[in-house]
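In pairs, describe these two lines:
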Amino acid sequence: MNLIDGIKGNKFVVFGRAGMDMFAEPIGTKSEFSESFRSDLGGSSANICAGLCKLGSEASLVTSVSNDAIGRFCINRLNYYGVGTEYVKSVAGEFRTSLAIYESCIDNFQNVIYRNGAADFEVKPSEMDEVDYSQFTALITAGTVFAGQPSRDATFRAFENARAQGIPVIFDIDYRANAWPNAAAAALRMRPEFAQADILVGNNDEFTVMCGGDEAKGLAAARAHAETGQLVLYKRGELGCISLYQEHVIETGIFPVTPAKPFGAGDAFLGNFLIRLSLDGDVHSAVLRGSAAAAYVVARVGCASAMPDKQQLDDFMFSHKITNPNK
C-alpha cells in the first residue's frame, strides 16, 4: 500500500500517550491562584486521535494507563471522543498516567507536568503482536515513545508489523525535554528511526535538537529525508511550514490569531493535515487545512476539546486570512 492510498483509507492506529489535562479557570488565571480547574483528555497521541475522530476518521490508540481513577478517566474520555480503546492496557503498581496542569494565557505561561513512573512507557513488544494491523491503513507514532522502555522496543516491533502489513508510517518527532535525560539522548535514539517514516513531521526546534543544536543542519536533514522519497513537514512557528516531497518544496504561511495558550497546535495540525490529504493527495491544501486547525486550537481553551469539526474549521478558514510566508 502506498502512502496516499494508506492515508485515504482513514483508519489510523496511533502509538503514544494519553493523559489528564487540568487547566485553570477562568481564562488568564494563574494556576497558583486558581480555585477551580477543568479536566479533559490530554497527551499528544490521544489529542491526535480525538481530532481525527471528530472529522470522521477511525483511530485507535495503543498505550498503557495506570489502573486507577486517572487511567479510567482517560479511557472514558477516549471513548467520549470516539477513539478506539481496544489496545489501551491498564497497568498495576506504582506506574502513573501523565498529568498536566496549565493555564490559558501566554505571558509567563506555566505547564506543570507529572510523568514520574509514566504508565505509557510500559507498553510491551508482545502487545504489538496483538494489534490487528489488517484493520488499519496507516500508523502514527509520537517520538516520546522512544524515551523509555519497554515502549521503545514495542514501537520498533510495531514498525516491523506495519511494514509486514504494508501500511505507511507517520512519525511526529514530538520532542519533550522533560521525557529525556538530555537532548543528545533524544537525538541518538530517534534519528535512526526517521528512515522508517513515510511522513516525517517536526518543528524547527525539534529538527535542530536532532542535529545537535544546529538549525542549518536541521533543515538540511529535513531536505535529505525528502530526497529519499519521504514527505517531510518542517514547521517553523510564526513563519509557517515548509513541505518537502519528491521534487516539491512548498512554503505555507499561518492564520494569525490571538492565542489563548502556546501549545496544542501540532496535534491539531497533523490530524487535519491527514484528513485533507486523504481527499486527493494534495499536500499544499492539506498543509493549509492543518495550519488553520493549529490556529483554531491555540486560540481556544483545552486541547482535545478544542479540536474543530469540519464545519467549525470551514467557518474559521472563511473568516480568516493566511499570511504570505515570503513577506
